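ASSEMBLY PREDICTION REQUEST
Request ID: AP-0331
Submitted by: J.K., bench scientist
Number of chains: two
Total residues: 586
Priority: normal
Notes: Please return the full assembly, not individual chains.
Input sequences:
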Amino acid sequence: MRRFLTPKSLIGLGIVVIMVTIAVAAPFVIPASFATRMQLAMRLQPPSAAHWFGTDQLGRDLFYRVMLGARTSLTIAGAAVGISVTFGLPLGIISGYFGGWTDIVLMRLVDTLLSFPALLLALTISAMLGPSVPNTIISIGVAFTPFLARIIRGEALRVAQMPYVEAAQATGTSGFAMIIRHVLPNVLPLVIVQGTISLAFAILAEAGLSFLGLGTQPPQSSWGLMIQTSRDFLDVAPWTALVPGAAVALTVLALNMFGDVLRDVLDPRAQR
Amino acid sequence: MSYILRRLLSIALTLVLISMITFGVTNILPGDVAMMVLGTQSNPTALAGLRQTLGLNDPLALQYWRWVVGMLTGHFGNSLMFKVPIGPLLLQKMTASALIVVMSMALALACAIPLGVWSAVHRNRWQDSTAASAALLGISLPDFFWGIVMILIFARTLGWLPSSGFTDPSVNFIAALQHALLPACALGLGLMAHLTRITRSTMTGILNQEFIRVARAKGLDERTVIWRYALANAIGPVMTVAGLQVGYLFGSIIVIESLFNYTGMGWVTYQALLNRDIPLIETSVFVIATVVMLVNFLVDLLYLAVDPRLRQSR
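STATUS: Completed
Returned structure:
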């Protein structure tokens, strides 16, 4: 536990907690009319006392937009990682624990899926299903699954060869009970580490999808979407890009910092 | 030799799987290719007729078979939006993308390896933490954000490089490089940060090993120990990770090429996705996945050629 309490992990965790609080509280703190209110007279105002982060091309307050964007980005990233863990965990454990043909067939499939760049796979699925928040979640979740399955499989394989697992097998514990009681708990630390790092990647993926118009759709607020619309006003109002860009950077940075420390402490492969 | 043969067989199998997955994903929704060609307001009889001619009423398995046989015989079909044969179109786009992918990989490796080594040599000192923080920031920002910042600085403010567009290298090589430089930098920055981290951690592990202590005890100068002894052992893992990142680059080119209006493979795939040009989507997704798979295979072979230990164990 002491190894875990480093400045790096505490700063990372602190920022993540703040971001999650903002995401949860945003709709309660901001009057609905405020975040979507367009005042064309106030368009592209630089940061000021009235508008801390300035305003966008429709005169909407960027501070509120970026807070609402946190909600969209974090919801999508969280749910997408949830999906990839839900599918990747059983796939990886079954493949690693049982081995043999099950392993060969499943991992061949996973390796093939890994040939598709994750962003390309997510974009294609999203474009085919039609861009929307639920479909963005599905597409990122599916695109990240093979990666998680591959990593969990390696760990399950390692755990399955441990003496205590062999001992349990010798006492006649059934396959299913073995997985629940012995394999799963030992794989979980790695899942937590990889889940945290995947969250960072999922936020970047959502930003990329929305930036290309194949993720969150307007008038909903999303960081990627905000950067996309800012492109036309870069010369006159660079803050319209810098504010959401900084939000993405800060969140992803915090998750990476936290994930780095988690990995040093929890990941058995990182210990020297 | 038998190893390479086995790998070739496995490549053939993977290609079949890639084609199946691509076809499956692009056919999640029932084919509206006919509507794409004629428009949503077209008359139902004409739609039905076209569906018949394009074979959209046939079972999916048959459609898949026709697509695969077409590709095997070099008939990739026509793009619905560009109205040109897909084969030559993608070949030209692939060359355009290859230029920025290779440039960004070269830039990333050229910066990441010295930086990672420097970081590992000065482990836990200010040099290390500076490099580590920079690398952490590098992997935390979306590449299109770097792209926007670069456009703002180097194209709009300083006017050194064009902010968008593509020039064919065979027409004007200098102009082609000028157009490719900013996209390549935007692509390479995140990769560089990632590779710096890998180089640092690999080098740190190696510098703690016995043979390094022996080399130092022999009185070899530090430069030789680090660059000839340690780096020679670290380069393999770094190259393997770099090879795996080619897949990441081919995902990123979709965003970066669209941002810079650089008309390569990523740009064309994005246009196809936006316009639901199903034949073009299918083939370009298939081509990208195939290229990524082949690059990984080549990296494996290269690794085999460089590291004699692996040859003996196989």
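REVIEWER COMMENTS: Chain B touches chain A through 46 residues (CB under 8 Å).
SIGN-OFF: pending second reviewer
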